[in-house]
Amino acid sequence: MPYLRSADARLHINILIGIPLFALYGALTTELQTKTLVLAAVFYFLTGFGITGGYHRLWSHKGWNAVAPVRFIVLMFGAAALQGSARWWCRNHRAHHKFTDTTKVRARSARVTPVPRMIR
Ligand SMILES: [Zn+2]
């Protein structure tokens, strides 16, 4: 698997492991304040929307459109979710969808639950 040996993979793995460890350290060494909890909850939903509404529906599927300032804000929240750039995410997501609505199976697909024949 060439990707797993790449510099990008090392960076992503370090981010995926490092940020939760940093958050755990902060959670164990800092007193939780209500405003921190509220900010975390708001940020959770905004970054979630950055991915689901922005990266996924807006840019991957072009399911909706918005004026440039709104696109920029959604882009920033998507980037804050640390799931890679919008371009990288959308390219991979479009590749994911290329075969999901067909009977073809993509090589090395992570598909684990094939659609039963009776509902195709
Ligand atoms: Zn999709």
Structure write-up:
The chain has 120 residues and is an all-alpha fold. It folds into 2 domains: 1-30; 33-102, no CATH class. The protein is 63% helix and 0% strand. It has 4 helices and no strands. The longest helix has 27 residues, at 34-60. The protein is flat and about 50 Å long. The two termini are 33 Å apart. The model is unreliable at 108-120 (pLDDT under 50). The structure holds zinc ion. Zinc ion (ZN) binds at residues 56, 60-61, 93, 97.
Give a concise summary:
Helix content is 63%, strand content 0%.
Count the beta strands: 0
Taking all residues together, what is the mean pLDDT? 85
- The oligomeric status of these chains comes to single chain
Which ligands accompany this protein? zinc ion
Into how many domains do the coordinates divide? 2
User: What's the shape?
Assistant: flat
User: How would a textbook summarize the main sheet?
Assistant: none
Low-confidence stretches: 108-120
Encode the helix/strand succession as letters: HHHH
Estimated helix fraction:
55-70%
Terminal CA distance reads 33 Å
With helices defined by DSSP (H or I, 4 residues minimum), what is the helix count?
4
β-strand percent reads under 5%
Q: SS-based structural class?
A: mainly alpha
Rg value = 18 Å
Helix/strand layout:
Elements: H1 7-29, H2 34-60, H3 68-80, H4 86-98
The chain binds zinc ion.
